């Protein structure tokens, strides 16, 4: 195994193999423990129709149900946050049916995104940068609801995204806790199967779906590397040197996304590439 590969695996806490049932139970327990520790009243999470939020949402719903059975207050709010009309709304509805959340709240973020972009008076804001505004607007919506209801905001960050920094800083990268930390994409899929999810939710091609000009653009197309290769790398397997170098390049460039913002007392960034 490459030395950098070993360091990354350790830093992200990836296990080469998992027992899906045990992972489900420990991650639900983590959500329950954290909620009780903070005395918050439950969780909120944006539900897109993709694998990650379907998994995170179902784990959160199960955690809240178990807490209620144990006599505690706990409530899960699934947030639908379409930008206008979502091309794969049917998948989002299938995700909601699978999660069976205590409550669903829908906020169309398009008006807020358009309003902000027009106030910026930057006619040339690229589709790419506008996409990151969408991800941050979803964060704003979730935190507004969380504050109003005394909830915590869940994230869906996991090892296969953390390694490349493939998330919007302070957008979907902003959350109070993520139950999926350390998992590869395939391990997430194993948990979905174990939870009895419909196949369409975990067989769906991953997409950030942030571009007006290219709806449903696949993550793999944008990244230039396949999740199967990222997963192989993260579980200690061999990938082509060229692939490993792409992954390690992403990891180095995105270090700032895996740290709290720097201040004059910090020096980690001086040792980073
Ligand atoms: N070295 C450094 N130290 C501290 N801060 C640094 C920095 N370099 C950039 N920055 C800051 O970071 C900003 C760039 O980061 P960011 O705003 O995140 O933007 P960026 O990384 O350029 O774009 C986000 C990427 O994540 C993908 N994404 C987003 C959302 C969801 C998903 C998904 O999988 O569903 C994927 C998206 O498709 C895109 O490729 C810069 O504008 C700058 O403010
Ligand atoms: N249209 C949307 N409605 C609600 N939440 C969204 C939407 N798009 C993105 N999100 C939120 O942003 C998170 C990051 O998106 P990401 O694409 O990584 O996850 P996903 O869509 O759940 O799964 P996948 O990565 O397989 O597409 C989602 O997990 C979800 O919480
Ligand atoms: Mg997605």
UniProtKB/TrEMBL annotation:
Pathway: Cofactor biosynthesis; NAD(+) biosynthesis; NAD(+) from deamido-NAD(+) (ammonia route): step 1/1. This is NH(3)-dependent NAD(+) synthetase. Its EC number is 6.3.1.5. Keywords: ATP-binding, Ligase, Magnesium, Metal-binding, NAD, Nucleotide-binding. Catalyzes the ATP-dependent amidation of deamido-NAD to form NAD. Uses ammonia as a nitrogen source. Residues 24-261 form the NAD/GMP synthase domain. Gene3D superfamilies: HUPs (3.40.50.620). InterPro entries: NAD/GMP_synthase, NAD_synthase, NH(3)-dep_NAD(+)_synth, Rossmann-like_a/b/a_fold. The gene is nadE. One of its GO terms (molecular function) is NAD+ synthase activity. ATP binds at residues 46-53, 156, 185, 207. It is an enzyme of class 6 (ligase). Belongs to the NAD synthetase family. The lineage of its organism: Bacteria, Bacillati, Actinomycetota, Actinomycetes, Micrococcales. Homodimer. It holds the Pfam family NAD_synthase. It catalyses: deamido-NAD(+) + NH4(+) + ATP = AMP + diphosphate + NAD(+) + H(+). PANTHER family: NH 3 /GLUTAMINE-DEPENDENT NAD + SYNTHETASE, NH(3)-DEPENDENT NAD(+) SYNTHETASE. Deamido-NAD(+) binds at residues 136, 169, 176, 256-257. Mg(2+) binds at residues 52, 161.
């Amino acid at each position: 195994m490459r030395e950098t590969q070993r360091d990354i695996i350790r830093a992200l806490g990836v296990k080469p193999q998992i027992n899906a049932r045990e992972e489900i139970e420990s991650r639900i327990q983590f959500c329950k423990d954290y909620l009780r520790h903070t005395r918050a009243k439950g969780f909120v999470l944006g539900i897109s129709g993709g694998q990650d939020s379907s998994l995170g949402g179902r784990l959160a719903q199960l955690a809240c149900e178990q807490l209620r059975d144990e006599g505690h207050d706990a409530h899960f709010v699934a947030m639908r946050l379409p930008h206008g009309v979502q091309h794969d709304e049917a998948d989002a509805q299938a995700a909601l049916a699978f999660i069976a959340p205590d409550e669903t709240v829908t906020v169309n973020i398009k008006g807020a995104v358009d309003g902000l972009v027009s106030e910026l008076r930057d006619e040339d804001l690229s589709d790419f940068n506008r996409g990151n505004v969408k991800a941050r607007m979803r964060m704003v919506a979730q935190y507004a609801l969380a504050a109003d209801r005394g909830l915590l905001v869940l994230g869906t960050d996991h090892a296969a995204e953390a390694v490349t920094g493939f998330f919007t800083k302070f957008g979907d990268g902003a959350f109070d806790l993520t139950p999926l930390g350390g998992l590869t994409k395939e391990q997430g899929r194993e948990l979905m199967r174990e939870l009895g999810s419909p196949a369409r939710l975990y067989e769906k091609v991953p997409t950030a779906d942030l571009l007006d000009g290219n709806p449903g653009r696949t993550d793999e197309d944008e990244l230039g590397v396949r999740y199967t290769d990222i997963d192989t790398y993260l579980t200690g397997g061999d990938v082509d040197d060229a692939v490993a170098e792409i992954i390690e390049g992403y990891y180095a460039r995105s270090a700032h996304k895996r740290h709290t913002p720097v201040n004059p007392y910090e020096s980690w960034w001086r040792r980073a590439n």
